[in-house]
């Protein structure tokens, strides 16, 4: 039977899958998940197919998975516990043969692998397109959010950061040495510039930016680069 390589961000998971597939007659080899962004994944000679195992979260891990797929295009199946949605579309956009839920049974997985080695993709093309479009919609929304964040002044961004930290208008006014009316006016400006109608929605947008920047700092970039957005600040 053909040789398969398994790579996972959790080596114990990769070892478990190797042992399970070996019972089905597969020659399974392991490749290490790259420890740094852009790091190589050595593919053993003679390998017919790859199985990438990851929950694809956070964004840094998703980007690393995309880089692995792009380095050996068209020859990977992705096994993930992520819900069917944009993250599936992200790896399909990176030219994965298909995506499988982590709850797939061993015999079914083996059958899918056999068909994939023969060139048969495991997903309906219409579903692949739908998932890719859902991912591209997420990217477009992230770009739009980054652009709206760039419209905020330094003071407006500081106030938004304080709201995110759980401060109310009275505490923010005291910290900044301004009146509560001034803070409320600046909060209204934030809502208008972010095109949202509540403080909760504004804080959610800010949280999304914070998460993206945290991923970028921790792992060599996010799937959608927000590096040009204003820095997160607290007075």
How would you portray this structure in words?
The protein is α/β, with parallel strands linked by helices. The chain has 2 domains: 3-123, 3-Layer(aba) Sandwich (Rossmann fold); 144-219, Orthogonal Bundle (Arc Repressor Mutant, subunit A). It has 9 helices and 5 strands. The chain has helices at residues 11-22, 59-71, 86-93, 106-117, 125-149, 154-164, 169-176, 180-194, 199-219; strands spanning 3-8, 27-32, 47-53, 76-80, 98-101. The protein has a 5-stranded parallel beta sheet with strand order 2-1-3-4-5, sandwiched between helices. The longest helix is centred in the middle third of the chain and has 25 residues, at 125-149. The N and C termini lie far apart (63 Å).
Spatially, the strands of the biggest sheet line up as: 2-1-3-4-5
Regarding CATH, which class of the largest domain? Alpha Beta
- Give helix % range: 40-55%
Q: Span from first to last CA?
A: 63 Å
Summarize this, please?
By secondary structure, the protein is α/β, with parallel strands linked by helices.
Provide the descriptors you would attach to this structure in a database record:
elongated; alpha/beta; Arc Repressor Mutant, subunit A; Rossmann fold; 235 residues; 2 domains; 5-stranded parallel sheet; 5 strands
């Amino acid at each position: 039977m053909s040789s398969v390589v398994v790579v996972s961000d959790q080596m114990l998971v990769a070892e478990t899958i190797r042992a399970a597939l070996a019972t089905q007659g597969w020659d399974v080899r392991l490749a290490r998940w790259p420890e740094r962004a852009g790091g190589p994944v050595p593919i053993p000679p003679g390998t017919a197919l790859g199985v990438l195992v990851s929950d694809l979260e956070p964004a840094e891990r998703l980007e690393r998975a995309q880089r692995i797929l792009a380095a050996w295009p068209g020859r990977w199946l992705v096994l993930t516990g992520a819900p069917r949605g944009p993250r599936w579309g992200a790896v399909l956009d990176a030219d994965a043969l298909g995506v499988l839920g982590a709850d797939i049974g061993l015999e079914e997985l083996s059958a899918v692998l056999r068909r994939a080695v023969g060139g048969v993709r495991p997903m309906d093309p219409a579903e692949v397109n739908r998932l890719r479009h859902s991912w591209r919609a997420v990217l477009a929304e992230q770009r739009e959010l980054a652009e709206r964040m760039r419209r905020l002044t330094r003071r407006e961004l500081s106030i938004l950061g304080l709201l995110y930290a759980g401060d109310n208008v009275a505490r923010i006014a005291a910290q900044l040495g301004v009146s509560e009316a001034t803070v409320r006016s600046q909060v209204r400006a934030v809502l208008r510039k972010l095109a949202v109608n509540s403080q909760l929605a504004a804080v959610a947008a800010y949280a999304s930016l914070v998460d993206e920047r945290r991923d970028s700092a921790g792992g060599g970039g996010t799937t959608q680069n927000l590096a040009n957005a204003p820095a997160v600040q607290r007075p």
